[in-house]
Specification:
The protein has helices spanning about 10-20, 40-45, 55-65, 85-100, 120-130, 155-165, 185-195, 215-225, 240-250, 255-265, 275-280, 290-300, 345-350, 365-375, 445-475; strands spanning about 1-5, 25-35, 50, 70, 105-110, 140-145, 150, 170, 180, 185, 205-210, 215, 230-235, 330-335, 395, 400-405, 410-415, 420-430, 435-440. The chain is α/β, with parallel strands linked by helices. It has a seven-stranded parallel β-sheet with strand order 3-2-1-4-5-6-11, with helices on both faces. The chain has a six-stranded antiparallel β-sheet with strand order 14-19-18-17-16-15. It has a two-stranded parallel ribbon with strand order 7-10. Bound molecules: NADP nicotinamide-adenine-dinucleotide phosphate (NAP). NADP nicotinamide-adenine-dinucleotide phosphate binds next to helix 1, strand 5 and helix 6.
Amino acid sequence: MKKILITGATGYIGRRLKECLLQRTDLAIRLLVRNRKKVRLSVVNKVEIVEGDTFNREALLQALQGIDVAYYLIHSMGSGKDFEERDRRSAENFRDVCIEAGVKRLIYLGGLGVKEAASKHLRSRIETGEILNGRPDRLQVIWFRAGAIIGAGSASFEIIRNLVQKLPVMITPRWVNTRTQPIAVDDVLSYLAAAITLDVQGNLVVDIGGEPMNFRGMMLNAAKVMGLKRILLPVPLLSPKLSSYWLILFTPIPYQMAAALVEGLKSETLVLNDHAMRYFGAIRPLPYDKAVRMAMDEMERDLVVSRWCDSSSDTACDVMNQDDTHTAIFRDRRVIPLDAIPADRVFQSVKQIGGQDGWFSYHFLWWLRGLIDKLSGGYGLNRGRREYGNLRVGDALDFWKVVDIKENQRLLLLAQMKLPGKAWLEFDIQPDQLVQTAHFLPRGLLGRLYWYSVLPLHNLVFGDLARKLVARAREMKDVRKPSTL
Ligand SMILES: NC(=O)c1ccc[n+]([C@@H]2O[C@H](COP(=O)([O-])OP(=O)(O)OC[C@H]3O[C@@H](n4cnc5c(N)ncnc54)[C@H](OP(=O)(O)O)[C@@H]3O)[C@@H](O)[C@H]2O)c1
């Protein structure tokens, strides 16, 4: 039985790869995660888990000991200005400890592109590959390079889907004409999985992708699949900054990500070798329209495995040490009697908040808060949710992040909106009452002013929220089973 290590197993690709490899009986899977709370209970019994990150050599050694094949599915894109340096150190550490632990093969997924013309982010992905590849005498590396990945919840697909669904007529900047080779996420997983047993000596770089297509073509084709007619009007003068603002207003991605994407689209990202065909001939990438259909199906069936916002790829895990509500200085507490409503129903009602169902009433106030957040560079409300009625730790829920769940007892959300402080929303289901608390730890004077200025709005919004959650639970008949994804 081959021993496999998956890093980035709580991220977009890693989560899906883990689900895919868990179907195989010839593999024993170990995960390196920054916080084990993000791994679902249904998975915990099927894998070995090592907690740590790539900057911790001890954790790395523990994770890589006895491993035959290690996946490197990590990046530091959200970790601030020094992300390139972090990416470099992370890759060096991983490569060196792989060698020390006697790992036989390393599999990496990076981005397509030519270093000289690449954006900062793509260049860092290429540098990561070069570093991992740097000791061919001691460690074999199979380095996949992909352009836009089309799958439910992927950043590229979410941008396309949101623009296409929301805007019948779009003015488009020049970068929509830059070509890439989009690929279905399931095809990416097929390549990654097949690389475990590929019979090849030495390092190999494998460029993967479907037919070349520009962003304009991707949007028009996606519209066709969705049964929509869309008009794109080219405007040569739309600057990268303006188009980034355009993207953040109509799609769920925040400014930093939009700007990186627009910068990345300044140059083409095309397949530069035929190794996918030569070494993985049995895998035929799906046509673009089929990839879009599959992504839409996954969403429509409400079975989305992972999303671009599952991880923040920040310097620390996004749910690390976030359960510290006791540090809050201000609290808005609402207590609603349950009158014998079973706890599982109340919990189900609580788990359904946000996303398409919204926040019951005062929609305008929620919408306005989302808009203000978007304009200040935050996520806003339109990240929505991964799955209706089910949540797992690490899920984004509009501008919140799920940081703790105790089935039928507690849900804790951390505010990820731009705030002068730190805020949580907690739902505590006690035997005879629902206690809903908004906690706030202000930063300086501004934080305190903020809290007092929004108090009247909190009175409207939070009081109503707690009452309606209980009212909905009272009317509920069936309780949806927690999903295993
Ligand atoms: N997604 C795409 O559309 C796409 C397209 C082309 C190529 N790729 C490549 O695919 C790879 C994976 O990308 P992704 O989209 O899956 O990323 P992602 O969703 O942002 O996930 C990143 C993962 O890495 C973990 N992580 C970050 N820094 C770490 C560290 N220092 N030590 C240990 N774990 C760390 C995160 O853990 P936490 O959950 O704790 O934050 C998370 O699990 C990247 O190399 C990317 O360039 C992705």
